[in-house]
Amino acid sequence: MNVEHEISLLVEEIRRLGTKNADGRVSVKFGVLFADEKCANLFEALVGTLKAAKRRKIVTYQGELLLQGVHDNVDIMLLQD
């Protein structure tokens, strides 16, 4: 699977699991994304896909590296529709 395809799947999953904020952007907690069974089966390296999406300005989140448990409450916000 190529990176662009994985990012498009990530966007779909953020929309599926996330909620719209007051400004109309969709966001999801990292812990929700990480714990979701469908995401676990789809993404071999969720953190790597998130970093690639962040570099392409498709998503944003605080920090550089997200770790399960420690960063479960970090919001991942979709920047593009």
Walk me through the structure.
The longest helix is centred in the N-terminal third of the chain and has 15 residues, at 3-17. The chain has a 4-stranded antiparallel β-sheet. The chain contains 4 helices and 4 strands, in the order αββαααββ. The chain has 81 residues and is an alpha+beta fold.
The coarse overall form would be globular
Oligomer: single chain
Residues in β-strands, percent = 5-15%
- How would a textbook summarize the main sheet? 4 strands, antiparallel
Compose a concise summary of this entry.
It is built from four helices and four strands. It has 81 residues and is an alpha+beta fold.
Itemize the secondary structure elements and their pairings.
Blueprint: H1 3-17, E1 19-20, E2 26-29, H2 30-35, H3 37-42, H4 46-55, E3 59-60, E4 75-78
Helix pairs in contact: 1-4
